[in-house]
Automatic annotation (TrEMBL):
Name of the featured protein: (wild Malaysian banana) hypothetical protein
Organism annotation: Musa acuminata subsp. malaccensis
Top-rank taxon, per record: Eukaryota
A Pfam short name: TPR_ZFYVE26
Domain ZFYVE26-like TPR repeats: 1-80
InterPro entries (UniProt xref): TPR_ZFYVE26 (IPR057946)
Length: 86
């Protein structure tokens, strides 16, 4: 329900619903909410802190679609370190 509220709020008001996102417990849901709001760097930070390869890959894909190349690079660097255990 909170995720739907964030989506509606972000689309209707064109503002960042930071407080609503902070209320989410699941890191995955926070990542999804940040992506919906266009906060790709924040989404990456949350995904990488939680250690979720799937979420970082999702953020990388969304950043690529949005042509947010710095975020794509951050995701790729994190994924390469994670996969090679550096």
């Amino acid at each position: 329900v909170l995720g739907a509220a964030i989506n509606v709020y972000a689309n209707k008001h064109k503002e960042r619903p930071d407080r609503l996102i902070d209320m989410l417990i699941s890191s995955h849901r926070k990542v999804l909410a940040c992506v919906v709001c266009g906060r790709l760097k924040s989404a990456f930070q949350i995904a990488s802190r939680s250690g979720s390869v799937a979420d970082v890959e999702y953020v990388a894909h969304q950043a690529s679609v949005a042509n947010a190349l710095p975020v794509v690079d951050m995701c790729r660097q994190w994924l390469s370190k994670y996969k090679f255990g550096v």
